Amino acid sequence: MIDIAGIINTAIPILIFIVILGLVVFVHELGHFLMARRCGIFVEEFAMGMGPKLIAFKGKKKALNPIEGEDDVTLYTLRALPLGGFCKMRGMEESVEGDPESFNNKSVFNRILVIVGGAAMNFLLAVILFFVLAFLVGYNTPTVAGLQAGRPAQAAGMQVGDRITHINGSRVSLWENLTFAIEMSGGEPMDVRVNRDGQRLTLTMAAVQDPDGVFRIGMNPTPVFGRLDTIPEGWGDYYRTDIIGSLGTAVEMIGFHISTPFRMLARFVTRQSLPEGVEVVSIVGIGAQVTEVYQVVVQHGILPTVLTMISIAGAISAAIGIMNLLPIPALDGARLLFLIVEAIRRKPIPQEKEGMVHTIGFVVLIVLILALIARDIVRLI
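The chain above was modelled as a monomer; its predicted structure follows.
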């Protein structure tokens, strides 16, 4: 007998993941599109998805300098494969001499704006999503609300009301910063700086690994309750989220998501240990993780599921923004690097040489992506 319920339970999170990925890609390409329009560059095609065209329609804005044999209006398309997208601009891959709407005929500054526009929009989307989460469901702060007897924090002399500001010299502004730093310590002694009634104190402690594999120091954070939260009976003094605090937390979250991959990379390069479970996964692996999270959180109701998916969308948007700014050939970061070199040299790098770098990089990137996908599929099977 076919397990209809099981199929639905698997299909729904996959569809949700495709929608999240589509939203993130759309926002990214929209960033390129809007900046291209702002800088006077003609966009030949704005596409969602890859592969054969399913739907196509022409826009109204015409090119100022029509080229014979080519459309003089922007083509908007939806393609068969719901992965990726692109914003094709005139003169980006080939030279179009004398065309004022050609990408390569614009100033270096304008081209840089167009290139970073995609990642900037991803970061903006992530800020909006994290703001919604912080405002509605609140967030934890690295201020001590309680201590567990006999655990490292209490043994080191930490007190209720202490606000943790640094761990091993690294600034701590979010609860996520704190838990990440504790996990990265691997149980080694840490210098924990706290603010206690205006005084700065440094305490030394080593986190212990609990049976679930997570390193902890035995302190409870002080929550800021969201607008949807119900205050527990007998809680006493409490804080509610406001717009300014929630926005600040959202911006801090972006900083956390931007810095974390580089901190992990630095540990990998310097051959330091990484937290258990940290690895590079493909889109298949991410989809599997989203499915696993969905199947757990859906048991608690629709609202927690929606909020969790918003959190995942914010994290993916930030990750896409970061990845595209890395100096990897065929990605925005490599194009940005070439533009910076051009600005320093005050003359462009030959287009055929840059194109060769991007082509070779693209092939290598596709091979790596396919290898990761194959590995993740084997794991799922």
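The first helix runs from residue 4 to 38.
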